[in-house]
């Protein structure tokens, strides 16, 4: 389950993320769901309004080398998946 809260400062984050522009560059292919109950796995993200509601707090970094996780957003739920093995699997 990935209930995501975006923090304002890097030190507040559990995970530093970088949005990549190509699917093959990503660790995770994420799909944003529109309701909380649909966020059933790491790959399906639901953005929450408050940090206490989140399972993971992320910070978007500006440089790929600073990221713990490289993310590519997909348009279809069935395309959401881990692209490769990663230490954060089942931890978002």
Key phrases:
single chain; 92 residues; mainly beta; six-stranded parallel barrel
Could you describe the 3D structure shown?
The protein is an all-beta fold. It is built from no helices and seven strands. It has strands at 2-6, 15-19, 28-32, 44-47, 56-60, 69-73, 81-82. Strands 1-4-3-6-2-5 form a six-stranded parallel barrel. It is globular. The N and C termini lie close together (7 Å). The model has no long low-confidence stretch (mean pLDDT 95).
The general outline is globular
| Chain-averaged pLDDT | 95
Largest sheet: 6 strands, parallel, barrel
Helix content class: under 10%
Topology:
Blueprint: E1 2-6, E2 15-19, E3 28-32, E4 44-47, E5 56-60, E6 69-73, E7 81-82
Parallel strand pairs: 1-4, 1-5, 2-5, 2-6, 3-4, 3-6
Antiparallel strand pairs: 3-7
Quick description:
This protein has 92 residues and is mainly β. 0% of the residues lie in helices and 34% in strands. The chain has no helices and 7 strands.
